[in-house]
Amino acid sequence: MTAPASPTETELKASEIRYFDTYYHQADMQRQLMDGYLVQYFENEFGRTERLYQQPLNRPATVLDLGSGWGTLAIWAAARCPQWRVIASDYVPYSLTLHDAMAARMQVPRRNWRAAADWDSLPFADNTFDYIIADRALHHALDPVRTLREVRRVTRQGGLLIALREPALPLYRPGARATFAVNMLAEGTNDHIYTPPQWADILRQSGWQPRLRVHTEDMERFLSGGTTPLGRRGRKWLRHRVPLDWLERLMYAFVARWGSTPELSKITLYAQAL
Prior knowledge:
Blueprint (H helix, E strand, L loop, with lengths): L8 H18 L10 H17 L7 E6 L5 H9 L3 E7 L2 H4 L2 H8 L6 E4 L12 E7 L8 H10 L1 E14 L7 H12 L8 H10 L2 E3 L6 H8 L7 H10 L2 H15 L6 E9 L1
Parallel strand pairs: 1-2, 1-4, 2-3, 4-5
Antiparallel strand pairs: 5-7, 6-7
Helix pairs in contact: 9-11
């Protein structure tokens, strides 16, 4: 019996566009804001970027938001950094029509531009952007090295990539990749999940210098929130003295006791264009 042919890249992209077109028509926009937590998370990560690279972000700059989706990050960033010219891009055209409504939900004016674009063939000249921002997007790339090389092409030397909430395999559970990939493909979306060191290697291959002092979203909430039975000194000690894989084990044990165990961590990828 002949095995079914693997879908082509064109078919995979078409399937994902159909998936997200349906998703954006059906999902609850208000839930995307996570009861205000998401905006605070964005602010925390932008502040961390400023400290890592010792430069203020709110300066005249041209910025590309990759895989903008609802537009949450682009809308917030344009309001937070009024000197930025932000272009929100996505290859699901319908998603770009939601940005005005999302801005109204966020109670800020929409100041970003919008562009339907495939990130493997961006319609921008070389060295156009000072910053590339993304939120839960890059793991959808079929070939992340190819995609990030194309993103590097349109980024000026020394420009920064800030990719928020990227799913990452826990360092101590690498076998989770197969199960997660099967579930996502069954839903019609193409998710490619890597460990933090693999993300660092992908960035280097693509012309970026990563700064992977890894911060997981789940870890941030565990170590910094009121739900944590740790004092300020205890959280600081854990951050700097305990290896990441042990922190992940601790966080997962805590979540397993008080809630449902998540499949993945979420990390922020910081990188500078070489």
